[in-house]
């Protein structure tokens, strides 16, 4: 029987060399990597889904493509205690509900089993035949005590890892083991000088070793996601950057060119206390999609910012009538009207934000100008 495979080649002529467009080959290689896993927030699932040509006004999109995409790497970052693990738990709950296996790798923070059980019980109210204990059997848990343990698990995995029916891989958090092995540049230089390491080539290699490990890790995660059709969800921590920015900014701890290329979707979670409703907005979080389908979103649109709250039973979307206040980088909030303070003395002088050193490696005692009005407290020597 003459059968056609996906590329349209005849099975009766295996030795025939047939040329076909590269776009058709790309479509064939990615056709099997379909589907997505819900985050538990329908608005966020819609924001994460990349737009397709089939999307037209008045027509509902494919529900199976909304959420964390399978076959790719998704990164969630934000300050401590903002809800990154809760979002990972909600995504794991959605995958367990579908009967898929979930791999959870923790690098320091134990898996909150009580919260996961509460989310499963809440989601199973419509399915009394299933129990949370039955679903948690599909959860495969690993504890990576250090960075070498994490790298060994991913680069030299044990047999049958990941399982064939696994659909989601979560690492909480992927950046936690790095600080103990890769100190900041100033501390590393101090250690090298104390150890007597003076060779410039060796020093440069040690300075770049963190980025080499980060690049290899990113490439391996992309390989696991593509070959096993996994939705890889990474929880990344943050650090503060000042140099080259108008103000102190929180950025993902792990970064770099290769790491950026490995991230297909990026979500940042943050808090924003609304001035008009500060009392009721204390428990409000915002999840913003910053990267989608491998492309960074340069414009901050309200449709990509999803407010939500965290409760015992899971994540719940909030009203979007009060979006977070987004100030342009060049505009700073003005001081409230009030009495004018007296000028500062020479011992109380202030430096501008852009004159503060970015790290301990920079000289913070150099020249800097006076803030306007500070000369009022200086005595006239003439």
TrEMBL record:
SUPFAM superfamilies: P-loop containing nucleoside triphosphate hydrolases. Residues 33-238 form the RecA family profile domain. One of its GO terms (molecular function) is crossover junction DNA endonuclease activity. InterPro entries: AAA+_ATPase, HR_Repair_Mediator, P-loop_NTPase, Rad51_C, RecA_ATP-bd. It comes from the Eukaryota. Residues 43-64, 328-382 are annotated as: Disordered. It holds the Pfam family Rad51. GO terms for biological process: meiotic DNA recombinase assembly; reciprocal meiotic recombination. It is found in: Nucleus. Residues 356-382 have a biased composition (Acidic residues). Keywords: ATP-binding, DNA damage, DNA repair, Hydrolase, Nucleotide-binding, Nucleus. GO terms for cellular component: Rad51B-Rad51C-Rad51D-XRCC2 complex; Rad51C-XRCC3 complex; replication fork. This is DNA repair protein RAD51 homolog 3.
